[in-house]
Amino acid sequence: MVVAVEKLITSDILKPARYLGNELLAVHKPWDTAAIRWVLTYPEVYEVGASNLGHIILYNVLNAQPRQLCDRAYLPGKDLAAKLRETNTPLFAVESKRSLTEFDILGFSLSYELGATNILEMLDLAGIPLTWQERQGSRGAEGQGGRESTDTQSSFPLIFAGGQTATSNPEPYADFFDFIALGDGEELLPEIGLVLEEGKQARLSREDILLDLAQIPGVYVPQFYDMAEDGSVHPLRPDVPKRILRRVATPIPAYSIGLVPYVETVHDRLTIEIRRGCTRGCRFCQPGMLTRPARDVEPDKVVEAIEQGMRATGYNEFSLLSLSCSDYLSLPAVGMEIKNRLKNENISLTLPSQRVDRFDENIANILGGTRQGGLTFAPEAGTQRMRDIVNKGLTNEELLRGVKTAWEQGWDKIKLYFMIGLPGETDADVMGIAETVSWLQRECRGKGRKPLNFNLTISNFTPKPHTPFQWHSVSTDEFKRKQNLLRQEFRRIKAVKVNFTDVRISAMEDFVGRGDRNLSKVVRRAWELGAGMDSWYENLDRAFSAWGSAIAQADLDWKYRQVENGEWNLFHVQEQKRSGDAENTQFLTPNSSLLTPNSPIPITPYPQRGPHLPHSLDIPLPWDHIDTGIDKKWLQEDLQRALEAAIVPDCSFEGCSHCGVCGTDFGHNVVIESPAIPKFAGEFVPNTTKAQRLRVWFGKQGNMALISHLDLIRLFDRVVRRAGLPIAFTGGFHPMPRISLATALALGATSSGEIADFELTVPVEVDTFREKLAREMPTDIPIYNVEQIDLKSSAATQLLETAEYLITVAALAETTPIQWQNWIDTIKAKEELWYEQITKSGKSQLINLRDRLFELELVESNKSVAESMSSVIRYLGSYRQDGLVLRPEQILFMLETVAGVEFQLLHIHRNRLILGV
Predict the structure, then answer these.
(1) Which of 113, 137, 221 is nearest to 174 (CA)?
(2) Distances (CA, A) of 873 to 814, 885, 897
(3) What stretch of H or E contains 62?
(4) Cα–Cα distance between 106 and 161 in angstroms, integer?
(5) Nearest 5°: phi and psi at 50?
(6) CA–CA separation, 420 and 478 (whole Å)
(7) Which residue, among 374, 379, 367, has the nearest Cα to 440 in the 3D structure?
(8) Residue ranges of the chain with pLDDT lower than 70?
(9) Which of 28, 26, 29 is nearest to 55 (CA)?
(10) Residue 175 half-sphere exposure, CB side, CA atoms within 13 Å?
(11) How far apart are CA 189 and CA 219, in angstroms?
(12) How confident is the model at residue 534, as a pLDDT?
C-alpha cells in the first residue's frame, strides 16, 4: 500500500524536498517482479544519509542484483515525525512511498555509538517492534503492511545493522537486530539476498532463515549467542560459529555514481573511493584497525569513474575518499589527469583530512581550482613523544614542511585536529599543542601575507574496541582540566579558533562503545526519555539527561562512574589493598605511580567483574567473538610498545607488523605504484564570451513545487552541465554560470510561467537548446518556450512588471458563490485599501494595495472537504523589483477587510510573469 505522502509533505514542513526521493540516478524496479525487497535505512536526516558513500554504494549494488529491489528511508525531522504519529501513518520508503513493513528486510547503518536511539525512533515510526524477541513473537494478520503472514513467519521485516560501530562491538545493540552484517557489504549483502530468496520460496520460519544466514561468513545472529557472567559471548548451539568473521571486499568505484539530491546535502559532490583500509597503525584509530588490509583502486578505474560520474551527475565538485588519501600513491597523477580533462568546466577537487607529511606541491596543484577549498591535517598530538606513543609516524620537521608547503601554495587558513587524554600524556604534552601551533605560525610569515590562521578541533580521546588503546580511559575531570589549560594558553595566540568536544559526549561514547548486552535496555530507555540525534549540539543537554537517567534506572550508574573516573587506566599501577573484609577493598588514585617505559603491563586474571574490581588485559571483552583479523595478543603487545614510545612501520610500504590480518580470510595489502604525473594543462579560465542569450519559459509543478529557490538554481547548473550546453561564466574569483532566474517562487507554490535567461559562449539552435535542456530536466519542470533575445537587452529580472496568479482560498465560515462575487466586486470598486507593511529596516509603512491590483475575478467556487466554501481567484498585480509587489497573502487581507470573514490560503499558482518593454 502506497502512503498518501502528498497530504503530509507540504510547504509547512522544514525542507520538504528531502522527502521526495526519486532523485536523478535513483533506481526504479518493478515491485511485483522482485523476489526480495530491501530498504537501506540511514538513521540520520536526509542531508546526511543521502550523501553517505557507503549508503550510495550498497544501494547501487543491491539494485544491480537480479530479482532484488532496494529502496531507501531516512530519519524524518521532528515536524514530519509528529505528523506521522498524529495521522497514524507509518514511516515510508522514499522511492516507492510504501510503508517499511511491506519490505522483506531493513538494513540500518550504525556508524556512531549513540546513534542507535535514532534507529529505535525509525522502527517506532514504522510500527515495527523494537526487539527481535518482540518481532519473533508477533504474528500479524494477513495483509498487514501488504506482506503475507503465515503461522511460521512474523509479519515484520528482518532488521539488521551494519557499519563501523556495528562491526566493532554489536553487543549493546544486540536486542534490536535480527542479525548484524560485519565489515564490507558489497559481496555480503547479495549473498544475504540469495539466502533470503531461497528461504522465502521454501516458506522457512524466521528462525530457520536466520540459522541459514548465520552460516554466511560476516553474519552475526545475536539470538543464537548468550553473554556469560564475565561479559564474554558464546554460541547457544553447535551449528553457528564461535567467532564471526569480518568481511572484506574490493572497492568498485563505478558503484559510487548515483543519487543527485534536489536539496543541498552535507557532502554535495561526487565522491569516489580510491583506497580502502589503512595500515598506518595509529593506536587510537578504530577505522584503521577494522578496515585492514589496505586496498588501492586501479588509477584508470578511478579516472573513468570520476569522468563518467561528473558527466552523469552534473556536479561541479568531486572528492577522493580514503582513510588516508595521501597514502594512495597515484593521488597526484589521478588528480592531475582529471583536472586536465575537465579543465574547461570549472570543476574543483576536495580531499578529506590527509597526512601532512605527504602533502607536497604535487598534491597542492590538484586541490581546489578556481574555488580553493579548505585544507585539513591531523597531527593528533603536540609533542614528538606523544605522536610516537600513538604511532602517528610524524616528526616535527615533516609537520612544518607540510604546513609551510600549504602556506607557500596560497592557503591562509588550515584546519588541524588534535586529541587530549591520550595514554601517557602529561601537562607538558597538552601545552605542546599550543606551542606547536604558535611555532607553525612563526615559521609561516612573509611580507605581504596575512598571518597563517588555524581552526583547531581538540577532541577527547575515546577508547575504541579492537585497538591497542581499548584498555585505557581518562576521567572527565582530567579532560576538563586539560581543556582549561589549553583555553588559557590559546588566549595569548592570535588568528586561532579553537573548538573543544563536550566531555559528556566522550564519556557516553566510551560507556556505550565498550559496553555489553546489558546496555540494550539502557539504549531503549534513553530513547524513551527523549535521546536522539545525540551528535547534534542543540539536543545535547536533553540527550545527556536522558542517557543519565536511563543508566541510573538500569542500576548501571556504578559502571558509568568507572568511565567518568577513568578507572580503566592501565598507564597507572592500581594496587589493591586487601583486608579480610572484601567491602574494605580500596585502590590508589589514577595518579599513583606511573608505569615506566620498561614496566611490563600487569596481566592478571580476575574471575568476575564488578564495580570495584581493577581492569586487566586478560578479562574477556564483549567483542572478543568478533574476528576482525587482528590478533588480540598483538594489540596487547602494541600497547606495551606504546609505553616504550616505539614506532611500528606502515606495513603497506615497509615490513610486516604481524598483526594477523593478512591471509586467506582477509587478503593482503594491495599497493599500486603511481603512473607518471601528467603535465599540468593549466587552471580553468572562465569563458566570459557572451555570444547568445536565450530566454526560457518553464513551469514548476507537482513535487518540484517543494524545491526551494536556491535548490532550483543548483538544479539548473547541474542540468546545463549534464546537457553539455556551452554556458558562459562570470569573471572574478568565483566564476558562476550565467543563468539568471527572473524571480523566486514561494515554497509550495506551483507555476506555469517562470522565466530564466541563459548566456552561451557559442550560438546554439533554439530547438536544439530546448531539446537538450528538457531532456535533463525533471518532468515536473516542463519547458514551454525558448526564444533568442538581443545580448544588449535587459535581463528578465529587470523587466518584471506584473504577475498573474490563481489562488485557492477557503472561507472559515459558511458562504455562497454570490457572496464571493460581491466581495470581489467590492474590492474592484474601491480606490483605496490601506495595508501596514514592515520595511527591512523595521519601520512601519502604509501602502495602498488597490494601486497594485490591476485585475481580479472569481474563477470558480466549490465546497471543500470541511463543507466550507473554497474559491479560485485570478488576479493580476504589480510585480516590480523595486518592491512594488502585490503578494497573494495581501489578496486575503483585502477579502477579509471587505467581508469581515477569516480566510485561508490553500494554494498558490503563478500563471505568468509579464515583462515590460
Answers:
(1) 221
(2) 18, 18, 16
(3) helix 53-63
(4) 8
(5) -70, -15
(6) 10
(7) 379
(8) 138-154, 368-373, 534-538, 568-615, 863-868
(9) 26
(10) 19
(11) 10
(12) 65
Residue 369 has what pLDDT? Answer: 60
Q: Identify whether the C-beta of residue 724 lies closer than 8 Å to the C-beta of residue 794.
A: no
pTM (2 decimals)?
Answer: 0.92
CA distance linking residue 549 with residue 557, whole number of Å = 9
Full DSSP string of 526-540: HHHTT--STTSGGGH
Per the CB < 8 A criterion, the answer to whether 684 and 370 are in contact is: yes
* Pairwise CA distance, residues 256 & 113, whole Å: 26
List the one residue out of 310, 279, 299, 493 whose CA is nearest residue 393: 279
Residue 27, all three cell numbers: 533506481
The residue with cell 545493540 is: 173
Cβ pair 356, 403 in contact under 8 A = yes
Which pLDDT score is estimated for 579?
Answer: 35
Helix (H, G, I), strand (E, B) or coil at 464: coil
pLDDT score at 142: 36
Strands in 186-269 per DSSP E: 219-220, 225-227, 233-235, 244-245
Report the pLDDT value the prediction gives residue 306, as an integer from 0 to 100. Answer: 97
Tell me the sheet residues that pair with 2. Answer: 98
Q: What is the distance of C-alpha 114 from the center of its chain?
A: 15
What cell numbers appear for 219 in the block?
553474519
Amino acid code (one letter) for 622: P
Please state the length of the chain: 917
**812 HSE (CA, 13 A, CB side):** 10
In one-letter notation, the amino acid at residue 841 is S
Question: Could you identify the residue written with the cell 513551469?
Answer: 699
CA 206 to chain centre: 32
| Helix segments in 757-905, DSSP class H | 766-776, 796-799, 817-829, 888-899
- Backbone φ/ψ region at 566: left (φ over 0), alpha (ψ -120 to 50), beta: left
Residues whose CB falls within 8 Å of the CB of residue 193, separated by 6 or more in sequence, listed in order: 36, 38, 62, 65, 68
Distance CA 587, CA 535 (A): 35
Write the DSSP assignment of 338-372 as a string of letters.
HHHHTTTTT-EEE--SB-GGG--HHHHHHSBSSS-
Measured CA distances, 30 to 6, 35, 157, 200 (Å): 22, 10, 19, 18
Radius of gyration of the chain (CA): 31
pLDDT of residue 473: 85
Residues 6 or more apart from 426 whose CB is under 8 A from it?
none
Residue type at position 167: T
For residues 385 and 362, is the Cβ–Cβ distance under 8 A?
A: no
Report the Cα–Cα distance between both ends of the chain, in Å, rounded. 53
Nine cell digits for residue 389 = 606513543
Alpha carbon distances (Å) from 809 to 820, 861, 896: 10, 9, 11
C-alpha count within 13 angstroms, C-beta hemisphere, residue 136 = 15
> Which residue in 912, 906, 880, 881 sits closest to 891, CA to CA?
906
